Amino acid sequence: MSEESAHTNRLIHETSPYLRQHAHNPVDWYTWGEEALERARREDRPILLSIGYSACHWCHVMEHESFENERIAAIMNEHFVNIKVDREERPDLDEIYMNAVTTMTGSGGWPMTVFLTPGLRPFYGGTYFPPDDRYGRPGFPRVLTAVAQFFTERRSEAEEQGEKLQQRLSDIASFVSGDTGLEEDLLEKAFQAIAATVDHVNGGFGRQPKFPGSMTLSFCLREHLRTGRQTALDTVSLSLRKMASGGIYDQLGGGFHRYSVDAEWLIPHFEKMLYDNALLMRTYTEAYQLTQDPLYHRIVEESAEYLLREMVRPGGGFYATQDADSEGEEGKFFAWSRQEIVDLLGAEKGKLFCRYYGVEEGGNFEHGRSVLHTPVAVESLSANLSVDPNYYRSLLREGKSLLFSEREKRVKPFRDEKIMTDWNGLMIGSMATAYRVFGHRAWLAAAEGAMSFLLSDLYKDGRLLHVYKDGVAKLNGYLDDYAFVVGALLDLYEASFDLRWFERALELHDTMDGQFWDTDRGAYFFTGEAHERLIVRSKNPYDNAIPSGNAVAVHNLLRLAAFTGKAAYREKAEQTLRVFGDFMESAPNGFGHLLCGLSWYLSNPLEIAVVGSPQDEGTQALLPKIDGRFLPHKVVALYDPVSGDPRTPATIPLLANRPQIDGKPTAYVCRNFVCQRPVTTAEELATLLGNGK
Q1: Which residues pair with 668 in a beta bridge?
Q2: With the C-alpha atoms ordered 593, 599, 602, 606, is the resulting torsion angle positive or negative?
């Protein structure tokens, strides 16, 4: 028997790639479930809860150093019930126990290690622990021994600490409507606080490590639209351009890595996450609508090409992540030595290619290799080097193609092929939105294919499920699953005007209201009524790597109100905003998407009804005037009076009683269901739309 398969534990039966990566550890791993929890209660043992995800570099490090170590595993097995959790499958557990670790230690991250009483209360925890004392951290064996001894010999203290932490977690999860008014002054204060954190040299917010902050950038775009403030647009422009030229962007293959370890966006953590690329695709699309900058167009195109090439499941759906590591080394797939490039392109062309992509002798990364980035524009570099710029661009295109082809021969990073309902919702919405702006039918086809897959394989008995892998769909959907899918369905409707997407959005939104809405205090819980009971039932309004479900729900409610004219939708959006108003004011960097929702709530949104066949030249002339400009506070509906579904005007009241003028495709531009005179030409429509404020 090989060393790799000397041990096999329960995780071998799981579909999660992250859990299966630990299936041959000598640790007696359980998944979270009644078998493990009942054993902890029966034997009165503490629980060691380990949470991570497949693309996490330090999760792999801790597995190799500690979980594959026979001596350390023996200590774990002797003293604890050991539970391994994929945070992407169980964001509910991740949120609760990450809050606990952050409360105990002041910081959090993955891998996360938390020690629980048999009653599931946390009493000690941390993130990465090395196998021995190093990096100023205690070695994992010493931690395990000390925690086991503490639980056995000072049990009452462990229980008391767990009770206090549970109360603290309950306090964190309890939100009540505050005194902050839902007024433009709140937007102003939030923007000023955000502006104070801008890196005016490199773009983005704060120092290193540097995360994209797409939701906050989208809020800045809306602030520019609301106020005309140039600094808001400058923040977005600097950030998007610096990211696009940095190593955080895959210069050869397209798509964004997770984050940058430095302030300059140069050296990334190399994992690629579906949600980052979905969010950034939307932000770059919005920025293009506002500025028409061809760079933003290129980034969206290249990112979409990457996603369709690497991340689409045959039969529909988008895969979850790609790893940071390959062949046991972080970034090996993506980095290049100068000599590799010269050998591939030749001395002269290789030198020019390296100059543009910042590849120098000795490298900017590990082992003398470099992460490609573009610190100087080709025009400036051409002038400095006395090279014809057209020749230089041609050389770069050729070199980029050759390097990409050569890179394809390397061992690729592991791809986590889970289909996550919430992340797919984000990507479907972004693909549909980008299609509306740039017109690539393949993008709409991928979005519709993914949605069809979700609704056929992850929608059972009127409820969404959270994750699919290897033919198995499981786990009750969370708020994010419902909110993101409803938002994506509305995006698909506006991209295709297929009534079935709108009808399904209404249906899923009603289910979400019944399962997640807090009838006492307002806003949405993260878990539904049918979910297992955990030590805390949270609402989590914060943007983390993805926007909060509550924030997306606010957008959905406001859009549905505009489509249908039903005040109840707007009232729920207002209730949700009021619950979190104080937090938007005090910590705006964590509430970018909810602030975008507040911006919509305080605006006078456009309600646009188009009456005509989508294939008619007149209709095709009208729609680009709507889709081509940045109008974030709008809905658009279309009805074909000749061959359209006759149920459409009743389902979407915005379209009711809207005749064509002189038999021509006609656009109605309304605000609060008060419409201006209908128009039939693109020029008239452009005038009515104005600047979208």
Answers
A1: 609
A2: negative
pLDDT tens digit string along 622-663? Answer: 999 999 999 999 999 999 999 889 999 999 999 999 999 999
Average of per-residue pLDDT values in the chain: 95
First CA to last CA distance, the chain = 68
Fold agreement (10-173, 606-689): yes
pLDDT tier for residue 545 given thresholds of 50, 70 and 90: very high
Q: At what angle do helices 294-310 and 421-438 cross, to 10 degrees?
A: 140
Give the total residue count for the chain: 693
474: helix, coil or strand?
strand
Helices 549-564 & 567-579 angle (0-180, nearest 10): 160
CATH T-level assignment (fold) for domain 184-326+416-601: Glycosyltransferase (1.50.10)
Q: How many CA atoms lie within 13 A of 231 on its CB side?
A: 10
Q: Which fold has domain 606-689?
A: Glutaredoxin (3.40.30)
pTM, two decimals, is: 0.94
d(CA 253, CA 309): 10
Residue 684: pLDDT band (50, 70, 90) is very high
CATH classification of 10-173 is 3.30.565.10, yes or no? no
Q: Is the dihedral of CA 19, 24, 25, 26 positive or negative?
A: positive
| CA 455/CA 158 separation, integer angstroms | 45
pLDDT digits (tens, 9 = 90+) for 39-65: 999 999 999 999 999 888 889 999 999
> What residues does each domain of the chain span?
10-173, 184-326+416-601, 334-409, 606-689
pLDDT of 198 > 60? The answer is: yes
The Cα–Cα gap between 20 and 461 comes to 29
The answer to whether residue 6 scores a pLDDT higher than 90 is no
Q: 50: closest CA among 142, 149, 127, 133?
A: 127
